[in-house]
Amino acid sequence: MSLTNASPSEAAMAARSASHVLATLPASARNDALTAMHAGLVAARDDILAANARDLELARAAAADGRLSQSLVSRLDLGKKGKWDEMLRGILDVRGLDDPVGRVTLRTRLDDGLNLERVTCPIGVLLIIFEARPEVIANIAALAVKSGNAAILKGGKESTESFVAISRAISAALERTRVPNAAIQLVTTRDAIPQLLAQERHIDLVIPRGSNELVRYIKGNTRIPVLGHADGLCSIYLDETADPEKAADVVVDAKTSYPAACNSLETLLVQESALSTVFPRLAAALASKGVELRCDAKSKAAALSAVGDVAGAKVVDAAEADYDTEFLALVLAVKTVADADEAVAHINEHGSHHTDAILTESSELAERFMSAVDSSGVYWNASTRFADGMRYGFGTEVGISTNKIHSRGPVGLEGLMIYKYKLRGAGHVTAVYGEGEGQRRFKHESLPLEQ
Amino acid sequence: MSLTNASPSEAAMAARSASHVLATLPASARNDALTAMHAGLVAARDDILAANARDLELARAAAADGRLSQSLVSRLDLGKKGKWDEMLRGILDVRGLDDPVGRVTLRTRLDDGLNLERVTCPIGVLLIIFEARPEVIANIAALAVKSGNAAILKGGKESTESFVAISRAISAALERTRVPNAAIQLVTTRDAIPQLLAQERHIDLVIPRGSNELVRYIKGNTRIPVLGHADGLCSIYLDETADPEKAADVVVDAKTSYPAACNSLETLLVQESALSTVFPRLAAALASKGVELRCDAKSKAAALSAVGDVAGAKVVDAAEADYDTEFLALVLAVKTVADADEAVAHINEHGSHHTDAILTESSELAERFMSAVDSSGVYWNASTRFADGMRYGFGTEVGISTNKIHSRGPVGLEGLMIYKYKLRGAGHVTAVYGEGEGQRRFKHESLPLEQ
């Protein structure tokens, strides 16, 4: 890793060149680099935590003045229980994943002696823009090296000292490996983001890690593809056949287990015929967890009679805007619908194509819902909060994508890969192939992927 | 298909709604629609060819005045030998392809009764912008229906009458199928392109089919992802160990079999030590096919002494710009390099990441070249002109992509697909999982894809 004061365009060009070297390194060389990074960070522990303490001191002062949020200060703290060890273990976890580079995903004999292969390869150069959390830098550097991608890292100014200390340690460690120095660069230039976002010739993919506002700003200000999501407006549809106990468990988990998460529930759609049967149990369970219910007229009446015994229950009128709002707090919009079709139409129109669920005991209805809802995750009788790379078993995650191309949903190492076609011939030319007399025909024989 | 005078934003919204219906249709309903389209076009043959004749008449007049190129007139002609039958056969070919929708590509048991599936699904709404060739409309409509994507089609004004006649026939045919009318829309509004390119909320992917200028304009004027390529600057590196006969065959095919194609050769990089051994045979073969060689000083000397016997041979000095030029004509830039490393660096810097080849008898060097060159196609001893969906055995092609994400190289039906994650539970919640005592662990058992 180099700590660069180069201009953003110089950094991008250097990353592009380094990516061409990195792409040709064998898995062993990339894994050796991860081993070295891990050892380098272990050795530099005291320096890094001291740097982090300086960042924290400034941030606490800013928080005391109200210039910074308390949650940001908390995300900044590398000394928090388990955080440092988790960061280090993450590097070894990534090292232990299967090599994503060079997998053959298609093999076809076009003709005798002319064989086509589709082989996975790195995308090229990634730009990672993130906010406060300093451990992300080690995590992302590990993912980039493992996947053979060069990466330019640009972090938030609150963690500058931590970033610089971590970079120094990683940079020194990589010096003794075959990974080129410019493959991982930390850009510390002020106001570099707009210039980096203009480097479409040298940067292939932008991955923002931070607030919705950051992601929205980036999506609106670059022609480079952006992997991620600005909004996480997840909905659940409650069908009349739903099991009340399961349904209550799921909505409480989806709404309250981590309200600030992108995969938390924001809108509950209730079938009209379920208002007086299944819904009351959900309304009471949510209210007793302190969730404010913003309801349309019909669901408000049903909710009010259900929460009578709950002290401090909040049931209020919903405004139209509530059905387009990601609350990220203990607030839930509730809307009455006639049936699953109306729910699907509402979700496709108002949702953010992130993760949506149906609660029903009808498998036929569930399958229809899962086909028709146009979201990266469509769930049956399960909490929307399962939308997560670790929970899906991907080992690691670079983010959750609501894009419609390339990668969708939780994105692991696979999302950092593309492929190339390798064609091996013996002087083959195209002009001899055709449908006419005396012309050669292609064989197009599918060959086994393993050889 | 509907022939729409709706505004571009209305057309896009209608396509989005139709896409949600189309995505849930079974393969049989989509294939039935293709059968109906085929029959409808067969029945409307005379009307369509009459409309095409009117387009042709105007185009010929414009060509006579020099307002239109002769090659465009030729591309316009649906009556040309074999073209009509090929268009119709294309629809049945697409119908015969395996269903790309609903393939399970990952299946994991997260826990007892909690199963995750990754299932292929359509991207959503495609915008296809194309120039003169009227048969593209039938081809693209067939691909869209097969892949479950809605499509908005916008054609060049020279073929308006043909497009309208084809649309009418397809539209009438689709009326009797389960494919919604707005799933395939032909927009005939004048100057609709800029407005369509602004519909990023409702359009997921733009596919331009036409000149480099069209593609470049589109890439520069939308935030919607664009699948395609503006440039096709393909190179071949001639190594000193190359077999002279094979090498000459390959470069002649790559340069002369269809010079206007994007996969044709534009730059030949010659190892210095091959200038007096292998290169002379290539230079003579190219010159005798009428290819003008634009050379640096060293290769010029070698070429001049090689083409002495070729009447009218053209060997001239190259300008720097020639190494960045897609000639699309019988012109070839030739440059001397020290070795494969210099060739790779030149290709990665000056090429368009489309298709590049090495001519060598060393398999070790070939593998190194194919790993290091950052292009969608990397070939060993084969002509760059093999870069084509039909030749790769994909059955059909929507274009060749030089993008670094989603789809790269020749793109078939697979490139029109994305996936969604389906999670089926029994009231599962996330809060009970964790590393602590008494918490549940995920199983993450990989299950067979076929069930």
Would you give an account of this structure?
The structure is a homodimer of 451-residue chains. The first copy, chain A, is an alpha/beta fold and 451 residues long. In chain A, β5, α7 (160-175) and β6 form a beta-alpha-beta unit. The first copy, chain A, starts with a strand and ends in a 5-residue tail after the last strand. Chain A folds into two domains: 2-219, Aldehyde Dehydrogenase, Chain A, domain 1, CATH 3.40.605.10; 234-392, Aldehyde Dehydrogenase, Chain A, domain 2 (3-Layer(aba) Sandwich), CATH 3.40.309. Chain A has helices at residues 8-22, 27-43, 45-64, 70-76, 83-96, 135-147, 160-175, 193-197, 212-219, 244-256, 279-288, 297-306, 340-350, 363-372, 389-392; strands at 2-4, 104-111, 114-122, 125-130, 150-154, 184-187, 205-209, 234-238, 265-271, 292-295, 315-317, 331-337, 355-359, 377-382, 399-401, 409-411, 417-428, 445-446. The longest helix of chain A has 20 residues, at 45-64. The first copy, chain A, has a seven-stranded parallel sheet with strand order 11-10-12-9-8-13-14, with helices on both faces. In chain A, strands 1-6-5-4-7 form a five-stranded parallel sheet, with helices on both faces. β17 of chain A pairs parallel with β14 of chain B, so a sheet runs across the interface.
